[in-house]
Amino acid sequence: MADKLRVENLKKIYPGTVALKNLTVAFDGGKVHAIIGKNGSGKSNLIEIISGAIQPTEGTVLVDGKQVLMTCPQDAFQQGIATVYQEMSLVREVSVAENIFLGRLPKKGKGEIRIDWDETYRKARKLLKEMGIDIDVKQKTGLLSIGQQQVVEIAKAMSFEPDVLMLDEPTSALAMHEVTALFKIINNLKKKGVAILYISHRLQELNEIADTVTVLRDGEFIGKIGIKEANPKRIVEMMFGEVEQRERPSDLIPGTSNILEIKGLTSFPHFSDISFSIKKGEILGIAGMLGSGRTELLRAIFGADPFNSGEIIFEGKRIEKPSPILMKQNGIGLTPENRKEEGLVQVLSIRENLCMASWGLLTQSMRINKKLEKPLVEKQVKNLQIKAPSTEHMISSLSGGNQQKVVVGNWLNTNPELMMFDEPSRGIDVQAKQQIFQIMWDLSREGVSSLFVSTELEELLEVCHRILIMQHGKIVDEVYPENLNLERLYEMCMEA
Known about the structure:
Shape: globular
CATH superfamily of the largest domain: P-loop containing nucleotide triphosphate hydrolases
Mean pLDDT: 87
Distance between the termini: 33 Å
Strand content: 25-35%
Number of helices: 18
Radius of gyration: 25 Å
Low-confidence stretches: none
CATH class of the largest domain: Alpha Beta
Structural class: alpha/beta
Number of domains: 2
C-alpha cells in the first residue's frame, strides 16, 4: 500500500533548542506505526506538526503524495488526519453522542435551529457499532470509566472519517482489560485501511499492537523497523546509542538497619503481594514500564490511595490506616509524578509552596508565622539553588526544573527520614536533573533514605544503590547497578 502520510525534512526550532532536525519518515495505511523515543526525542513535536497544532520551521507534510499546508487542527481534519491526545478533551456533563459530534450536532427545522436528537443518537450508535464498541450513547460521559472515555475520544476522532489516526499514549491510564478492548478497536480500524500512528512509552505493548517501530532520538529520525526486528536489544540501541554509564559517589554507604519494610502489599488491580525493605541512607530504585504499578505503589505507601491487604512497617512500627498526614508525621515525604496539579498550588507564591507541608509547624494562634517561614524558605532556595527574582513571585513563573526543586524543598522542610520521588526529572533540563540527583546523594549522606521511580532507566543506574524490577504489578527481580548495563535493565523490564 502506498504511503498515506509522509513528512520530509521537518525542522522545528525554538529559541535555544532544535526540537526536530531534518526529519523524514513515511507511514502507509492499514498498519499501526509505533513511534518511540526518550522524553525530549521529538515525538510530541512531530505529532503536533502533523495535526496542525504547530507549524514547522522548515519541511513539508504530504498526504497521499500531495503536499499540504496545515495552519490549524481544522486543516488536518480536512486532510483526513485526526488526533487523540493523552489529555482527554471530553465534556463530562453531556452524553456520549453529544461529545462525539460536539460542534457538529445534526439540526432540523426551518433554518436548522433545533438539534435533531434522534439523528444524533442514530449516527452515534452506527459509528460505535462499526467500531465494535458497546456503550450507551445517551450515557453521561463523566460516568464512564477512563477506558470507556478513551474509546469515546477515539470514536469522536473517527467521526471525521480520517485516513490517519494519531494516538498519543492511549493506554497510559487504562487497566489491563481496557487495554485489550482498545487494541481490538485499533485492529478493526487497521483492517479498514486507516494509518495509525501510535506513541507509547509502554515498550512491552509493541509486540501486541504495532506493525512497525519508528525511533526518534534528540529530534532526529534514527530508523524504522518491522516489529519482528524490534527486540529489546535493538530498541535500546536505537533509542540511546552509546550510553556512558555514570556511577554514584563512592562515599554513599547505607546503614545496616531497615527504615521501611513492605510486606505483601496488594492494591487490586494495580499491584499485588509487594514485599521489600529500605535501609537508612539507601537509595532504592523501582524500574518498570508504564503501567507496571510503580506510581500506584508509592501512592499506597504514602496513604494517598487505599490498598486491599499487606503491612507497612516504618522504623519498626506497623502503620495502621496510613494517610498523607500520618505518613508526613512519621517522617515520609512524596514528590508526586504530576507536580503541577498534585505537588504545587499554582496560584500561590514560591514561598508558600515551599512551606505547605510544614505549615503545621509554622502556625501560631491559627495564623502562619512568617518569621518562622523565612529561614526555611531561605535554606531551601540556597541549598537547592532555586533561581527566582523573589520568593513572592507566583510558582507558575518558574521553569520546570525550578518548580521541581520547590516540590522537593517543600518536603525537605519537614525533615523527612524517607523521601519518595516519583519521576522527579520529568520535563526538566539536564542541569536540573543532576541537581535533583545530587539532592538524593546529599540526603543519603545524612542518613535519609530515598525511594526513586523513573521511566528513564539510565537515571536509576546512575543514582541508586539497588533497583527493584516491576512487571504487571509484581516485583520480579532485584539488581545492583554495578552488575548490569542499560540494555539489560530494559530487557528485564520488558520480559514477560
